[in-house]
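Hello Y.,

Per our agreement to keep a running log of every chain we model this quarter, I'm adding this entry. I've kept the format consistent with earlier entries: sequence first, then predicted structure.
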Amino acid sequence: MEQAVHTSGTAALRAKLRNTWLRDLVVQYRDIKRRVMRRSEGEAVLLRRYARIHGKPLNLTNPRTFTEKLFWRMITWNRGDIPLRFRQLADKYAVRAHVAKTVGEEYLIKLLWQGDDPRAIPFDRLPAEYVIKPNHSSGEVLIVRGEASREDIIRQVSGWLAKDYYWQAREYQYYGIKPKIVIEEYLKNQDDSELLDYRFWCFRGVPAVIQVDNHAHDINPFFDAQWNQLDLHTRKKAARPPIAQPTCFEHMFELASRLSRGIGFIRVDLYNTNGRVYCGELTLTPGAGIFQFGPDHWDLKLGEKWDLTLDH
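Predicted structure for the entry above:
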């Protein structure tokens, strides 16, 4: 009973302070403290995450496995030591210029609209199907097919724009990116078969393994450069069905090579639909490191391919 009274009193105090100068002062103090402590707290968060997932402390001095090097990258970048080019690759609008310059505009998904005011979205000029995503985050996608509530879309998009995605998982490449909304064409196969996402894990311009994913993220097969299925997986409970080699695979392989050249590690995500290949996105820190390789020998095998000197 005493706890309930205390909780009720706290809520009443918060309501009373809402929209007052004192509330604004508290929010400003909290934000300033958060920015000042960002580096040290971010590093502590990442170190705890690695230890929780892998059951041991992170070897920052001599990282050897892929996951050690992935967390080394996140921690090093969190300290502010990140080349400007990686920020461009993480920005889902700015990266379009990089893709166009590197491989050509024909590999970009058609841009229908971009801007930073959700109420300016030209709903009446958009097709019946389209995809909305923020440029400054990962995994946040809204697929619109047919009639949809414009106010609900505006509300969701406004929520995206109001936050700095860095605080979600301390992936520093997203820190401070100016939020923007990107609306692209909705890709689909003419035969209505499931659209697959071909994720090329590339090291110094060489694709080593290819992960195949779908929209539901309930499959997790991996293949080598000759399209032999591997025993590798990163989601223990996901299905790993055999999947036919996509048409134009050699061309996709070449595109992934060109888009990853000069980078120690990057994942190049490609779509292949109706005889055309599109670049979905470039991923620098897959899953924010929240995964394990199975079998675990793949962690060292892929880690040996990653040259960390190219991260600077």
